[in-house]
Design goal:
With about 300 residues, this protein is mostly helical. It is built from 14 helices and 6 strands. The protein is extended and about 85 Å long. This is DUF659 domain-containing protein.
């Protein structure tokens, strides 16, 4: 007889693993309901190895699974991994009082999947065979992925309106409608920027040793506020520890540096090495007419 499936398979869906076609990934049905299937299969936290241990650990640590079932049901599902189905099968096989009809029923039941009523069972998705319009969540996620592809490859937003681009996507996934260049440079870019800022703030908050603030001037255009003070106030509001300040060493910013040192005695203020090197090379070109002519022609 073939290997019996472990009991957790009722709560997961197997998807193809592009890196290893012999071993498929398993995606939690709770994740699919939370994010939709197309998004869930792209999230690392939703995809696990096809092993009973990983199934159990994922369900045990997944909050949405605990919210979906009561405490008793969760414990019952998680305890399924402790049952020894092979031993039960051997015990049933060795029972001499079992009638021939019962044996036949047992043989049939081995290939019948018993489905709990609380679980929404999904067959192989129809998207593997035909195209369909994207849901609202899928459409938003696709736009973000398309935006990331354009940025990472250094392509202009007009790439989305290129006829050849449309032909390619029409051939691969006819139901997908590519976003306009105006949409990419508008709402999609705005959301991506917001997510990037939030991610950077989160990273800075976790850096307990302190972060470095680098800027090229100490005052704004009207010289009304010190950038350093404004930055420190914003950092304090977001619970970010700024330890180092780096800026150029222009004379007009010396007073601002001194004021910042008095205001924040526990901070370290450093000069910009690139600015210092620029001054050095500037003096060299000033002294040599030959270097000056070469630099002028090069520009």
């Amino acid at each position: 007889m073939g290997k019996q499936p472990h009991p957790f398979h009722l709560y997961f869906e197997l998807v193809s693993n592009l890196n290893n076609k012999t071993n498929k990934y398993a995606v939690c049905l709770c994740c699919i309901e939370e994010y939709t299937r197309n998004i869930a299969i792209t999230k690392k936290e939703c995809c696990i190895f096809n092993k009973a241990k990983y199934y159990h650990d994922h369900l045990a640590s997944y909050e949405n699974f605990k919210e979906r079932y009561d405490e008793k049901k969760c414990a019952e599902i998680l305890s399924l991994g402790n049952n020894n189905h092979d031993d039960n099968y051997k015990s049933n096989k060795s029972t001499k009082t079992t009638s021939e009809d019962e044996i036949e029923v047992q043989e049939i039941n081995k290939y019948v999947k018993v489905i709990p009523t609380q679980v929404v069972v999904r067959q192989a998705p129809i998207t593997n065979y035909v195209s369909r319009p994207l849901s609202t969540k899928d459409d938003s996620h696709f736009r973000q992925l398309f935006f990331n592809m354009i940025i990472s490859n250094g392509l202009p937003f007009s790439f989305a309106e290129n006829p050849e681009t449309h032909e390619l996507f029409k051939f691969c996934i006819p139901a997908v409608k590519l976003p306009l260049a105006k949409t990419l440079s508008g709402s999609v870019l705005k959301n991506a920027s917001k997510n990037l800022v939030e991610e950077n703030i989160s990273i800075a908050q976790k850096n307990l040793g302190g972060v470095t603030a680098i800027f090229d001037r100490w005052t704004n255009v009207q010289s009304e506020h010190l950038f350093g003070i404004d930055i420190m106030e914003e950092a304090h509001n977001h619970k970010i520890n700024i330890k180092y300040f780096v800026s150029d060493s222009a004379k007009k910013y010396t007073a601002a540096k001194c004021q910042m040192r008095v205001e924040y005695k526990d901070k370290i203020f450093l000069p910009c090495i690139a600015y210092q090197m620029n001054l050095v090379f500037g003096d060299i070109f000033k002294e040599s007419k030959k270097y000056k002519d070469v630099s002028t022609k090069a520009i």
